[in-house]
Specification:
The protein has one domain (2-99): STAS domain (Transcription Regulator spoIIAA, 2-Layer Sandwich), CATH 3.30.750. The chain has 100 residues and is of the alpha/beta class. Strand 2 (11-20), helix 1 and strand 3 form a beta-alpha-beta unit. It has helices at 25-32, 55-70, 82-91; strands at 2-8, 11-20, 43-53, 75-78, 98-99. The radius of gyration is 12 Å and the shape is globular.
C-alpha cells in the first residue's frame, strides 16, 4: 500500500495505490492522519490505483469525512474501479460520499 498526500490547486489530494486491507490499515491510518486536520480546503481521495478496500479502509475514509464535515469541508472520492465501488455500494458508503 502506497499513499502520497499533496496540495494541488488549493485542495489536499491523497493518492492511494495497492490494497487497503486489514493488514495495511494501521499504517495507512497513520499516513492519512493529516487529512483529519485539514482546514479550509477540500479533500480529494484519489483511488485510481486502489485495487481493493476492506471495512478497515472504509472506516479510515469515514473518519476523514466526519472530521472534514466538522470543519465545514468536503471529501470527494475519485477514480474508483468497479470492484472498489461495489464495496462502497454493498456497505452503503456510496450514499455517504461524493464522487468525482
Amino acid at each position: 500500500m502506497k499513499i502520497r498526500i499533496e496540495e494541488i490547486d488549493g485542495n489536499v489530494v491523497a493518492f492511494l495505490e495497492g490494497s487497503l486491507d486489514t493488514a495495511a490499515a494501521p499504517e495507512a491510518e497513520k499516513v492519512m492522519d493529516p487529512l483529519n486536520n485539514v482546514e479550509g480546503k477540500d479533500i480529494i481521495i484519489d483511488c485510481t490505483d486502489l485495487e481493493y478496500i476492506s471495512s478497515a479502509g472504509l472506516r479510515i475514509f469515514l473518519g476523514i469525512l466526519q472530521n472534514a464535515e466538522d470543519r465545514g469541508g468536503h471529501v470527494y472520492i475519485k477514480g474508483l474501479n468497479e470492484k472498489v465501488f461495489a464495496t462502497f455500494t454493498l456497505t452503503g458508503f456510496n450514499n455517504i460520499f461524493e464522487f468525482m
